[in-house]
Fold each of these.
Amino acid sequence: MPVNADFQGRTYPPTEPYRVSAAKIREFAEAVGSGDPVHTDAALARARGYADVIAPPTFAVLVAQQCDAQLIRDPEAGIDFSRVVHGEQKFVHHRPLTAGDSVVGILHVDAVRQAGGHAMVTTRTELATEAGEPVCTATSTIVIRGGE
């Protein structure tokens, strides 16, 4: 089944809240090799004006990919995950993700197009606190490889 081009313009409902914890921030910072103590030292983070430790900028991918999964798992979208290659990821941060945040995401399918026998799907996830404060806009493009 080819990727359903009619999904362009579709918006999915908000995800369940993702609770950002200091432990997850620490794990992520270690995994990506970020040694900035603002990710692990709450006292230092507060001294710099934050409510608690802040996440490395790419931490937002954890929540954004949970949003993207709504599209991937939607049988009507026609996306065969075994053929997916991650093409591009961009973040526009409105403020840092902070330990204690409870974040929801709303997924928008901005583009579905064919290129060289492959499908390319661009999504935009708007991440915000449960109170509605914008945190990050994550844009992702995946390539769904065409047939052999």
Amino acid sequence: MGYIWVFIQAILFLIYVFTLIFSTGASWGVWRWLGVPLIAVGAWIGLAALRMHGRRLTPLPEPNPALGLQRTGVYAVIRHPMYTGLLLSAFGLAIVAQKPLAIAAAGALTVFFNLKAREEERHLQRCYPDYADYQRTTGRFLPRWRQ
């Protein structure tokens, strides 16, 4: 079942790239530059998470026992920082490119990653008994401001 998630993810990224390259653009003037901070923050968050995983990274929603439960670094405030980084960058790039269809495709990626994160969290709860406590104190895609 895990590879179905990876397949759907690949298809959605292809759709996103297609809309980014081939869809018609809009004219948003200086507002388009609001995407630059999204790209920068997304890249920083995603790369920080990627660095923690190294070669043990897997695209499957099942946890990698070699990693253990990550609760430090960017994982101290966000449970799925790689998804957050990808989504922020995808929205930011679509805004800079001024492509409304690419923004819609990034929205579809958001729905997909929310569903994939839920599936991943079911596996993590079975694998790590203290994951429920981690969920209560840490936001899924954004930091939890109030506890």
